[in-house]
Amino acid sequence: MKLTVNGVIHEVDVSDDMPLLWVLRDELGIVGPKYGCGIAMCGACTVHIDGVATRSCVLPVSAVRGEVTTIEGLGTPDALHAVQQAWIDTQVAQCGYCQSGQILSAAALLAGNPAPTDADIDRAMSGNLCRCGAYPRIRQAIRIAAEKLAGTG
Amino acid sequence: MGRLKTITRRSLLIGSAAIAGGVVIGYWRYKTPYENPLLTELEAGETALTPYVKIDQNGITVIAPRAEMGQGVHTTLAALVAEELDVTLEQVRVEHGPASKAYFNGAAFEEGIPYPATDAGRLAENLRAFTQVPAKFLGMQITGGSSSTPDAYLKMRKAGAAARSALVAAAAEKWETSTDKLSTGAGFVYAGDGQRIAYTELAPLAANVELPDDPPLKDRADWKLLGRSLPRVDMIAKCTGNAEYSIDVRLPDMRYATVRMNPGLGGKLNSYDASAAKAMRGVERIIEVDGGVAVVASNSWYAFRAANAIQFDWGEAPYPATTAEHFAAAERAFGGNPDSRLRDDGDVGAALQDGADVETEYRVPYLAHATMEPLNAVAWFRDGRLDIWAGNQNPTQATKDSAALADIDAENVHVHTTLMGGGFGRRQETDFILSAVRVAKAMPGIPIKMTWSREEDMSHDAYRPLAIARLRARVAAGRPTAMELSLSSPSPIESQLSRIGLAIPGPDISIVQAAWDQPYAIDHYRVSGYRPRVMIPLTSWRSVGASQNGFFHESAIDEIAHAAGADPLQMRLDLMTHEPSRRVLEAVAELSNWGSSLPAGVGRGVAFVLSFGVPVAEVIEVVDTPSGIKILNAFAAVDVGIALDPRNIEAQVHSGLNFGLAAAMLGEITIDKGRVQQRNFNSYDSIRMSQAPPVKVRILENGEKIRGIGEPATPPAAPALANAIFAATGRRIRELPLRKHINFQ
Predict the structure, then answer these.
(1) What is the ipTM of this complex?
(2) How far is B4 from chain A (nearest CA, A)?
(3) Considering the entire predicted model, what is its pTM?
(4) Of B239, B373, B654, the CB nearest to A87
C-alpha cells in the first residue's frame, strides 16, 4: 500500500492491521514518533494526519486517509516550526522522549485555535504524558508560540 | 607508534591531575589513575588530552561520562570542562564516551554513610572521602544519587584546565616564547601581538608537553559559562526528532525482538506452545531465554503480536501472592531487631512511657519507574565482539554482566550509552540489556533490537519498595518533646546487591534515609529502621528512601504541629538546627505568601526534606471542589550550594516536584496471584497537564558545598500535598496514593 509521509510517497508491504507507528519506525526508519504505551494513553506516538493530531500506535496503517506529518516533517533544525522554536527558546525538553508528541499536539492545537485559554491547553495536551513533568514549560512555550503565530510576539 | 606512546604517557600525567582532583578533600591520594580509555579508540588525527577532552582537526569533543536521562547533565558537565578549557559550549561536541572504570563516580556512595549531610566535621568528611576508595576500585561508572555534579565539579574543571595548559605550552614552544605571554579564548591561543592559533591545530603538539601536576582553576568571578543558564546541548535535537535513544538505533539487517518473562517475577518457565506464533507473519525465530521466551521478527509489532499468541505454563512466583501479605511481612519486621537506629537523642523510652499525644501509622505502596521510553537495547554479537547500544545508568556493570553472559572478555564488549527516555533509577539495572544479549548470542552476526512492550516493562520492573511508618510523639508548649519514628521496608540495596552476587554488608541506610538525618532538634528523638525480607525485585527510584520517608517524616511533623497548636511552618523553623535549611523554609514562606488569608476551601501545606545534601522546602496550595481536589500552585526553595545552571536547576525542581506529586496522587503497584497487576498507563497513570500546577522556584546558595538536584525536589511533594489537603478539608490521609481516599480533578 501507499503512504505519504512528510511529503514523500512510500510503498509499504505489511499486515493491514499494523499500527502506523510501527510502519513509520521499523519499516520506513522515521523514528521521531515514539513508542510509549501502544494503547493511545501517552501520546508519544502523535503524528498529524492532514493536520489532525493522531495517535499512530493504535491506527491501523490500512485506515490512514491523508498525508502523514511527523516531527521530522514539521520543521528541521534549519527551518524550525514556530512551536519548535518556542520549545527551544523555553528550554522545554528534559529527557525529550515525549516531546515529538507534545510538539505535534501543540502545533495542531494552535493551528485550530490561535489563542488558546489554559482550559483549551489542558484539553488538548492532557493526552500527552511527560514523566519528567516538564508541564510548566510546555504551557509557557505554547503561549509564546501562540503570540508568535499571531504576530504579537 | 612513537606518538601513541607519548600520548599515553602524557595522558597519564594529565589524568593523574584530573582524578586526584576528586579527592583533595580527603587524606587519600591516588597514585595510579585508570588508563585513559579514549586512547584505544582514537582515530587518525585525533588527540586525547585527558579522559575528557578529545581534539582533532575538525573540532573538540568533551566526554561527559554520565548518562543523560533528562537531568541536563551533558550540558552541565561539558560546561565544567569548557569553562577551564576556554572554549564556548557551541564549539564542543558532547559525547557520553565509552564505558570505563576511569569514569568511576567517586561521589555515588556519599549518601550511604552514617553521618548526616549537614555534618561537616572531620570524622564525617574523612568517611566521605574514604567512600571514594571503594568507588574507585569498584570502578562503577554510575549515574545516580544526584552525584554527577558534585563528583565532576573539581575533576572535570581540572581536566579542562590541564588540557588548556598543554595547549598553551605547545603554542609557547611553537612560537618560542613563554607561556605567561600567551592567553586563550574561544578555542584559540593568542600571542601578545594578536597572532593566534586554533586548539585543533595545536593538539598534536600538545601531546608532547610536560604539565603541572595540579593546574590552577579560574576564580568564580571569572566564569563565563558556569553560574549561567546555558542552552542545553541536546535541546534542538530533542525538539526536531533527531535525538537518538537506543530504541531509535538502526543497524544493517537488524531484526526486532521482544520478550515474555514469567509474570511471577523470578519464577520459572515450565513449558510453552509457540506453534501459532511461529506461523505468524514476520516472525523469524522463537528463542527460549532465561525465565521466558523471545520472539524475533522483521518488525517490533510483529514480534509483539506473536508474543501475545504464545501459550505459557509459568512456575510459581517465589514470594507471597498478594500485596496484603507483603505489607504483613513489613508489619512483622517491627517485632524483630532494628536494622538501624542512627538517631536516638535523649531518652525516648522514658519520654513516651506514659503514652503519646500522637500515635499513628502511614503506608506507601510499591511503585514502578515507568520511564517514557520502554526498556530496550540493541545488541550485535559478531566475531567474538559484542556491541551494545542502550540508554543505561551503569555501563561498566552492563559490560561486566554482558561479558559473563556472552562468555567473552570484557574488553570485547563495547557499550554505547545513548540518550535515555527517562531513567529514574531503572536503567542502572542490566536485565533489559541482558535480554538483548541473550538473543544476539543465539543469532550471531545479526544486530538485534530488543524492545520490551510497555506491559512487560511495567510488570517486570525492579520496584520502589512498599513501606510502613509508625509514629509516637508527645507535644508541649507548641512543639514536640518526643518523637519516635519506626520505619519498615524491604531493602532496595539488598535486592540490588543480590543481583550482582553480593550480600548486604550492614544496615540499609536508605530505609531511614531523609528521616534519621533531618536537621530538627527534638529533645527525645529516635528513628529506627526495620528490614523485612526482599520479596519482589527492588531498586533505586528517584530519591530512593527519601521518596517514602519524606512523606512519613513530614506528615508526622505536620500532625505534631497540629496537635501542638502550632503553625506548621513556624514550628519547623523553631526546630531547625541548620542555617541553609532555615533559609529555604523562610524563602518558601515568602514565595508562597505563607500565613496570608485564603478563600474557603483552599488550603496550603508545607514540607521540608533534606536529601542528597540539598535542603528543599515546598508549599502546595489546593482547593477542594465538588469534582475533587485541584492543585492550584506549588512553590519550592532549594539550596544546591553552588548553582551552575539556574534554568536547568529550575527544570529539575519542576520535574522532581511533579514526579513526587504523580506518585502521591496516583502511583500504586499491587500484587495478586503473584503477579503485578498494573501493566500500562491506563492502570498506572501519571500526572497530566490539566493536573500539574504552576511552580515557582527559588534557588539559594548558602550550602556548604556543591550538590546535585536530580532527586531532592521529589521527597517533599507528597507530604506538602497531603498537608495541603488536610488544611483544605480537615482530612488527614496517611496512605498513598491519595486517590484511594480522595478524588482529584
Answers:
(1) 0.98
(2) 38
(3) 0.94
(4) B239
